[in-house]
């Protein structure tokens, strides 16, 4: 056995403290929502999708699984029912503006009184602008977001997951307890939620901006 002094030294294990998903800012989210015209069904649909991502911090894959019955009233409030990873089902309360966006879209699309198992967010026929029977996929929603963000000059590196990062950071910045944010986003481990927290990056920006050179 080699003497202790000759054994290779092990460096400290690297620990990931922040996720790699780029964050969209609150101002950018507001600009994006305001930029979506709502004079046609496409705009109403896209605004509703963006609002769901912002106001629920949902994964886009879960949003793509929505059917009409996913938006319902439990007797006291409107909720969205999500089917998450592993088939886990949970309800998230819907704030008033998001409820209005969803209701307006569903009414305009003629889905409010339709079968509950009908896909909520559907593809649209380009020539007629009418809904097709097929549900939008997560990739469809990602491409839609890329197009919408490009129109207002947002960076191409942003993705649907960027909204999840922004909402988590925003709530933690307001002092919402980590456990409550963790419950909202459906993480089993609070350490996972912390990976989405970009507050430290904002602190660092404030520090480097003070360098006198």
Q: How are the SSEs ordered, and which strands pair?
A:
Elements: H1 26-35, H2 41-56, H3 60-64, E1 71-73, E2 78-83, E3 89-93, H4 96-109, E4 122-124, E5 131-135, H5 138-151, H6 160-173, H7 178-185, H8 190-194, H9 199-208
Antiparallel strand pairs: 1-2, 2-3, 4-5
Helix pairs in contact: 2-4, 2-6
Straight-line distance between termini: 54 Å
Cα Rg: 21 Å
Could you state the order of secondary-structure elements as H and E? HHHEEEHEEHHHHH
For the secondary structure, the number of strands is 5
What would you say the CATH architecture of the domain at 26-154 is? Orthogonal Bundle
- Estimated share of beta-strand residues: 5-15%
Mean pLDDT, as a whole number?
A: 80
Helix/strand class:
mainly alpha
Instruction: State the CATH class of the domain at 26-154.
Output: Mainly Alpha
**Could you name the CATH homologous superfamily of the domain at 26-154?**
Intergrase catalytic core
Helix share, percent: 40-55%
Question: How would you sum up this structure, described in words?
Answer:
The structure is a single chain. The chain is mainly alpha-helical and 213 residues long. It has a domain at 26-154: hpI Integrase, Chain A, CATH 1.10.443.10. The chain contains 9 helices and 5 strands; from the N terminus they run H-H-H-E-E-E-H-E-E-H-H-H-H-H. The chain has helices at 26-35, 41-56, 60-64, 96-109, 138-151, 160-173, 178-185, 190-194, 199-208; strands at residues 71-73, 78-83, 89-93, 122-124, 131-135. The strands form 2 sheets. The chain has a 3-stranded antiparallel sheet with strand order 1-2-3, with no helix packed on it. The longest helix is centred in the first third of the chain and has 16 residues, at 41-56. 28% of the residues are buried. The model is unreliable at 7-18 and 201-208 (pLDDT under 50).
